[in-house]
Amino acid sequence: MASVMSDSAIDAALAELPDWHRSDNAIARVVESATFPEAVALLQDVAAAAEAADHHPDMDVRWRKVTYTLSTHSAGGITELDVKFARRIDALVADSAKN
Question: Which of 7, 9, 16, 33 is deepest in the core (most CB within 10 A)?
């Protein structure tokens, strides 16, 4: 099982993930797409990546904005798995912006 990261390790990781912030025992990012269908398409890409990684974020859709929240529930907080998947989401966001 993954271990919960220390506060200083989380702060260091978030320094490298400027679009993410800490939200209690999780990290979160809001992504705003140009249209609702683009927001849903990105959400589907993230869902496919999450299924492949067996690490599933909470996803909240509000029209063109989707909030992605990551926490390793089995560990009780933020782990390296969350940081790694945040980077994966960032890559998917960057890829969707190119299309």
Answer: 33
